[in-house]
Amino acid sequence: MRLTIGDFTFIAELHVEEAPETCEAILAALPIEGRVIQARWSGEAVWFPMDEFGIEAPQENATIHPSRGNLLYYPGGISEKEMLIPYGSSIFGSKVGHLRGNHFATIVEGADGLREMGEKTLWEGAQRIVIGEA
Predict the structure, then answer these.
(1) Considering the entire predicted model, what is its pTM?
(2) pLDDT tens digits for the chain (134 residues)?
(3) CA distance 126 to 133
(4) Fewest C-beta in 10 Å: which of 27, 95, 122, 131?
(5) Where are the alpha helices (DSSP H) in the chain?
(6) Partner residues linked to 93 by β-bridges
(7) Residue 8: how many CB atoms within 10 A of its CB?
């Protein structure tokens, strides 16, 4: 899967065995476009609201402690549907507390640009995101 965020391009490997329904649902919704902003509650990460895309998935391969480059999809519940893209230290959460997001993919190419992308989003504001097939 290819993610373009502002001027940065990342390639992510899907975790089809660990999060099969999440991967299938996200792939079916491609291409996905919108804007990422700095995460408010999750540390060094950008997040992307995803309610409008109608992606339905159960909780699978869920974590609150993603590593840099681990893509999490939160399928909704106590907070809105969203994707979290950590560029540094992160604990996934919202104003109602910790969230368990589905770790469905990991960035395998371009990860060296994650910190710069995150800092650009933090200091310059929302960045355009386009998610498509690699």
Answers:
(1) 0.96
(2) 999 999 999 999 999 999 999 999 999 999 999 999 999 999 999 999 999 999 999 999 999 999 999 999 999 999 999 999 999 999 999 999 999 999 999 999 999 999 999 999 999 999 999 999 98
(3) 23
(4) 95
(5) 20-29, 114-124
(6) 98
(7) 18
99-100-103-109 Cα dihedral, nearest 10 degrees: 20
E-strand ranges in the chain read 2-5, 8-14, 32-38, 43-49, 62-63, 70-74, 82-90, 93-94, 97-98, 101-109, 127-132
Token pair, residue 105, equals: 């993919």
| CATH for the stretch 2-132 | 2.40.100.20
Residue 24 CB-density burial (10 A; 0-12 exposed, 13-18 middle, 19+ buried): middle
